[in-house]
Amino acid sequence: MSSKSVAVITFSTRTPRVGPEVAALVKEYIAKDAEASGIKLASIDLADFKLPVFDEAVIPAMIPDKGTFKNPHSIAWSEAIKAHDAYVLVIPEYNYGVTGGTKNAIDYLKKEWDGKPAIVVSYGISGGKTANEQVSNSLSMMGLRVAATKPQLAFQPQYGPDMYTAMFEGKLGEETKKEWAEKGSLEVLKAWDELKVLLAQEPAKEEAKA
User: Fold this and answer.
1) Residues with Cβ < 8 Å from 143, sequence gap 6 or more?
2) What is the CA 80 to chain-centroid distance, rounded?
3) Which CATH number covers residue 123?
4) pLDDT value at position 2?
5) How many domains, in total, are found in the chain?
6) In this protein, which residues make up the domain named NADPH-dependent FMN reductase-like (predicted)?
7) Do β-strands 97-98 and 86-94 pair in parallel, antiparallel, or remain unpaired?
8) Is the dihedral of CA 153, 157, 159, 160 positive or negative?
9) I need a surface site. Which of 56, 61, 77, 149 has the fewest CB within 10 A?
């Protein structure tokens, strides 16, 4: 496979937050295989961009044909995303659904995402199942090619001390890290294998414009 670049994106933005630690683990799970496959991994943290609720005068689907972004935060986010060939979205679930910040960041862009492969990895009390389904469906309808395997990483044990450590201290507990290393990592690697297949394929024109 020719050299490709895949961005692992942390989508949590609140403080404290465990998202960066989760994203780092996900990246660690795939790093060895990525290197062996000639795939470059990059890290993007949504919190660095401080995106407000979408505030441009032109809608994303009309860029660049009918206009351009004017705000520095929009331009920076666009440049960061379009620089990569595929994505691993590491998303939290709040209140049984996708977070506003996650959806807002996705909706900021259109053509930067078009036709590219993606993995959705969620985490939360129950693994973020609902948020994972919502984001995966949204990305698919936008024209991304989403891996069939959608890893859901749950704090262990459910409603145990690790949950509170993650929520209030922004740290993963040892039981959670052990469970993820033994089982969650296998789901991540399965999704990663699917992403590599998608990366090797050229999207159909209809897919890229969906």
Assistant:
1) 113, 114, 115, 207, 208, 209, 210
2) 13
3) 3.40.50.360
4) 61
5) 1
6) 6-147
7) antiparallel
8) negative
9) 61
210 Cβ neighbours under 8 A, 6+ residues apart: 141, 142, 143
Domain containing 9 equals 4-208
CB of 75 closer than 8 Å to CB of 69: yes
> How many Å apart are CA 145 and CA 139, to the nearest integer?
8
pLDDT digits (tens, 9 = 90+) for 60-91: 999 999 999 999 999 999 999 999 999 999 99
How far is the CA of 157 from the CAs of 129, 151, 153, 161, in angstroms?
A: 16, 17, 12, 8
